[in-house]
Amino acid sequence: MKIITVCGMGIGTSVLLKMNAEKALRGLGVDADVEAADIGTARGAARTAEIVLTSADLADEIGDVPAKVIVINNFTNTEEITSKLTEALS
Amino acid sequence: MEWLVAILDFIGQQILNVPAYLIGIITAIGLIALRRSAGQVIGGGLKAALGFLILGAGAGVVIASLDPLGELVLAVTGAQGVIPTNEVITAIAAEQYGAQGAYILTLGFIVMLILARFTPLHYIFLTGHHMVFMSIMLTVVLSVGLGESGQWAVVPLGAILVGVIMVVMPAFAQPWTRKITGDDTIAIGHFGTLGYIAAGASGQAVGRRSHSTEAINFPQGLRFLRDSMVATALSMVLIYWVFAIWGLIVLPLDEALGIFGSADVGAYIMAAFGSALQFGVGVAIILFGVRTVLGELVPAFQGIADKVVPGAKPALDIPIVFPYGPNAVLIGFIFSFIGGLVTLGIIAAWLNPVFGLALILPGMVPHFFTGGGAGVYGNATGGRVGAMVGGFVNGVLITILPALLLLVFGELGFENSTFGDADFGWFGALIGSSFLGGPVLGIVVSLLIAIILVVAASIFQRKVVDTGWTPGKRRDEYLAAQEAEAKADETASVGAAASEPAQTRAEAKAQAEGESKPDNT
Lengths: 90, 521
What we know:
The complex is a heterodimer.
Chain A: E1 2-7, H1 13-28, E2 33-38, H2 39-46, E3 51-54, H3 56-62, E4 68-71, H4 78-89
Parallel strand pairs in A: 1-2, 1-3, 3-4
Helix pairs in contact in A: 1-4
Chain B: H1 2-15, H2 19-33, H3 38-77, E1 81-84, H4 86-118, E2 123-125, H5 128-146, H6 154-181, E3 187-188, H7 193-206, H8 228-250, H9 253-260, H10 265-308, E4 313-316, H11 326-355, E5 359-360, H12 364-407, E6 417-418, H13 422-433, H14 439-465, H15 473-494, H16 499-516
Parallel strand pairs in B: 1-5, 1-6, 2-4, 3-4
Helix pairs in contact in B: 2-3, 2-4, 2-10, 3-4, 3-8, 3-10, 4-5, 4-6, 4-10, 5-6, 5-13, 6-7, 6-12, 6-14, 7-12, 8-10, 11-12, 12-13, 13-14
C-alpha cells in the first residue's frame, strides 16, 4: 500500500507527517510505503496512492483524487493519525 | 604499510570527500542506530546519496537560466541582481563545499543534542532542509573567513555554530509560538525566526486594539501561490519580463537581443519567458533532491534524538503555524512582498550606489513562507494591523540581510542567488564580519558569539519562557473586555422579547465563520 503526505513544499511538515504516519503504521502493524510530496505534484502522486494525509487547507486544493484524502489537524499527534488511519483502513 | 595508506587515502578522497556518498553513509549509520532492517538501511542510504546528486543536476539548470537575467540586470541597472533562493544557492555551493557541509551538519546535530540535554534549551530542531542550508551557509562563510591556512577549523567551528543556532532560535521565539498554538508542546525550528520575532514585537507595538485577521472574510484566490512550482515560475516570469522590457527600452536593440541570442523582439520576449520557466524547472528538480535526502535523513536524526534527549520539544517548520491563521498568512505574504519591493527601491536608489549592496529581487517562495509566518506572529499580538506591519518588517529584513550576507560570501557572492531567510542573513553576516580582523581573532569572536547566544537564550528560557510570559496580554484583555461589553449591550438593548434576533445574529455569525474557514467544512 502507498500513502503520501502533503505540504506546501514537500520538504518540511510533510516529512514530519511521514515520520509520524510511519510510527502509527508500525504501531498498527501495517506494512505501507509512505512518501512526502509537495502540493504541486500531490495530485499526480495521489493517482498511484491509496491514502493521502494532509492539512485542512491543502486538502481543498488537492480536490478530487482516486485516493482517500484524510485531514490531519495536528501533525505531531500520533494518536490522531493512528485513529484516522485505522478508520480509513477498516 | 603502504597499502594501508593507499586504502585510507582512497576512502578519504574518493568516498568521504564526495558529499553525496557522505550523506548516504551518515543516513545509513543513523538507520543502523535505529536497528532498521538491512534492506531499509541500504535503500535509505542509497536514496539519500541519489537525492544529493539530484541537487547538482538541478543546480546546473538553474544557473543556466539565471545567467541571462544576471547579464540583463547588470546591463540595465549597472548593479548585480540577486534572487535569494535557499535551495538554489545550496545546490550551487554544495559542489565546492558539500563535503565539509555534510560533516558540519552531522557534528552540528550532535552539538545540538548535547546542548538540548545539558542546558535549559530542550529543543530538537527537526527542519531538515534548514539544517542543511545553515550548514552549507556557515561552511562558505567560514571557509572565506578562515582562508587557506585555517581550513582545519571550518568543520569544528561550523558544527558548534550550527548546534548553537538550532537550539537558541526556537527558545527566543517560544513565547510567541506558544501564544499562537495555545499550548507548549511544539516550537518553531525555522531560520526565518528573527522575522517572526520582529513581527510579533512590532505587531504588539502597533496593533493595540486591532481585531484578529481570522474574523475577516478574505478571498481565497491567492492560495494557489502556496504551490511553490506555480509561485516560482510566476514570479520569475514577472521579474524576467520587467527586466527584458526595461532592456528593450534603455539598451541598443542589438545589445538587448544579444543577451538571449535572439533574432527579433518576439523571440527575445519568449526567450525571457522560457528562461523563467527553466528556473522553475531547476528549483523543482532541486526540491525533489532535497525531499529525497530529507525523507531518509530526518527520520534517522529524529529517532536518535528521541533516544538521547527524551521529552525535548520538537522545533518544526514554519507552515505548522499556518492553520492557526490562514488569513494572516496571506496578509503577511502580501505585506512582506511590499516590504521587499520598498527595500529594493531603497537599495537601488541609495545603498547600491553608496555601499555597493546587490539588488535583492523579491523571491516569491521566501516571501510566502517567511512572510506568511510573520503574518501569523504579527496577528497573534497585534491583529490585522499586526499582521500587516509584521509582514512588512519581515519583507524589509529578508531583503536587506541577504545583501549583507553576500558581502562575506567571497567568490560565491558573485552568483545570482543567495540565502533568503532572515537568520541566514544576520547570523552569516555577523560570523563573517567577525573574521575581518583575521582568522585567529575571528575564531575567538565567533566562539564568543556562540557562548553569548547560549547564555542569553538560557536566561531567556528560564526567566521569560518558563515563567509563562505572554506577549500582547493587554490587547487580549482589551478585546476580551470589549467583547464582554458588546455582549452586555446586546442583552440590555434586546431585552426579553429578543431571543429571535439574538438567534439570527448567532446564526449569521456561525455562517460568517463557516465562510471564512471553508477548510473546516
